[in-house]
Amino acid sequence: MNQTNEFPSYRGTMRYKCLSCGATYPIDALYYTCPDCGGVFLLEDTSFSSLAEKHDGPGWRKIFDARAATKNTALRGIFRFYELMAPVLEAEDIIYLGEGNTPIVRASRELEAYAGQPLAYKNDGQNPSGSFKDRGMACAFSYLRHLVRKHGWKDVITICASTGDTSAAAALYASHVGDPLKSVVLLPKGKVTPQQLAQPLGSGALVLEVPGVFDDCMKVVEYLADHYRVALLNSKNGWRILGQESYAFEVAQWYDWNMGDKAVFVPIGNAGNVTAVMSGFLKLHRLGIIEDLPKIIGVQSSHADPVFKYYDQPAEARIYAPVKVRPSVAQAAMIGNPVSFPRVRFLVDQYEQLGGVFHVVQVREQEIMEGMLRVNRHGHIACTQGGECFAGLLKAREKGFLDPHDLAILDATAHALKFIGFQDMYFSNSFAREYEITPGRELHNAPQELIAASRKEDLDEQAFTREAAERVVARLGLADKHDHY
Ligand SMILES: N[C@@H](CCOP(=O)(O)O)C(=O)O
């Protein structure tokens, strides 16, 4: 085997570290919150600095670039960056369902002219269950499989609360692993799109609906994880964060490890993603794989904005307070008390100490919705959270957070089709008042009847085809084929 396909020999020394009291715990069991103080954990590899002795930055780049061509499925997805993520797994533990390596698509000149900024989308909706959560699940389920194998665990209940993406991903990976895993997902009743509700049902998960919003479901799941033997699959689970760091690694690799003049936009919901993105870039920077840290710009809707509100205060007076959410088209980010907020605060401090730039901007629902419609009219497949990023880009420009030549990399966290009902609401002007969205004419679209069904009954097949075609000609004013352009 060559470097391209060879499974790495490096093994790290990993442990859970509480961000509140600093207590550490072995990784032999699953921990979500610190048994000493209730704080959240990050997973750390205490041997991480030895990676710098093995290779310098260019050396690591070469290894990761070589692996980009691998046919070894244990390295083909997010584990291309094995040494930086969960270097305690064996190849046989790794689950690969095709996650990662999502395309980065540069915007058209027309869209860039509208935005006034160079920009590209990373289409994480092209992951297997249609969202970035698959990155985290690939890692969390691989680790769970490792524990099951090691301890011979039977009857493992995997559980999560979700706005729709996490549940789809958790159910998919659990169904692929199969026995002894059983997937259970808690969803806020009526607040998950029909497409997202269909996903865990199709994967055979037990779907439990709870009145209220995501935050209510999360509390139930946290209670269960504190008192019962369940495997929590939300991003409170540190293995999820590790997998999602691959987003940052892929972005850096795509730009040949040059993150100067780049601004990475991330919508913030439960805050696991922005945590992972920051942590990922910090790891690359520590090993000299990248020289510059990109600007990180978090985006929140004014209907779910606790992290914006925190960073909007002067540094010395910042107080964190959960908010009561209001309906949002960026439904995946409709979260009033993000579980990863302490991780964000911890990592932002490190990021800024190293000269990195971090901001959070707040956008309106109308801007999110029209952001999504506008970018998708220019060849993208952004979900509403992707629209939120575009709105965030316009806001960041307005605030002077970007240099004119900064390339903005926007996160389309999920596939547009998962949230397509919101497009229908815009086109049919049927948003409930609480969304505060008034559809405009510019982005409106609707199907138009070309020819009545009754004409089909009146005419023979040929005549019907001709009449339908002639109506197209009349409507579009088509020129004859023999006329020159
Ligand atoms: N939008 C998320 C909310 C849960 O986030 P997680 O990353 O903590 O699992 C979802 O899709 O459920």
Can you give a write-up of this model?
This protein has helices spanning 50-54, 57-67, 73-76, 82-85, 109-115, 133-151, 165-177, 194-202, 214-227, 238-244, 246-254, 272-286, 306-311, 341-353, 365-376, 384-398, 420-427, 453-458, 461-476, and strands spanning 14-18, 24-26, 41-45, 104-106, 119-123, 156-161, 181-188, 206-210, 231-232, 262-267, 295-301, 358-363, 407-412. The protein is an alpha/beta fold and 485 residues long. Among the domains are: 104-128 and 241-435, Rossmann fold (3-Layer(aba) Sandwich), CATH 3.40.50.1100; 449-485, no CATH class. A 6-stranded mixed beta sheet has the order 4-5-13-10-11-12, sandwiched between helices. The chain has a 4-stranded parallel beta sheet with strand order 8-7-6-9. Helix 7 (165-177) packs parallel to helix 8 and helix 12 packs parallel to helix 14 (341-353). The longest helix is centred in the first third of the chain and has 19 residues, at 133-151. The N and C termini lie far apart (57 Å). Ligand LJ64HWYM binds at residues 133, 160, 162-166, 214, 234-235, 269-270, 272, 332. It holds the Pfam family PALP. It is an enzyme of class 4 (lyase). InterPro entries: Ser/Thr_Dehydratase (IPR050147), Ser/Thr_deHydtase_PyrdxlP-BS (IPR000634), Thr_synthase-like (IPR004450), TrpB-like_PALP (IPR001926), TrpB-like_PALP_sf (IPR036052). Residues 96-405 form the Tryptophan synthase beta chain-like PALP domain.
What name does CATH use for the topology of the domain at 104-128 and 241-435?
A: Rossmann fold
The helix tally amounts to 19
Bound molecules: the ligand N[C@@H](CCOP(=O)(O)O)C(=O)O
- In which order are the strands of the major sheet placed? 4-5-13-10-11-12
Rg is 24 Å
Which segments are poorly predicted (pLDDT under 50) over 5 or more consecutive residues?
A: none
Class from helix and strand fractions: alpha/beta
Silhouette: globular
Mean of residue pLDDT values: 97
DSSP strand content: 5-15%
According to DSSP, the number of beta strands is 13
Determine the fraction of residues in helical runs and give it as a percent range.
25-40%
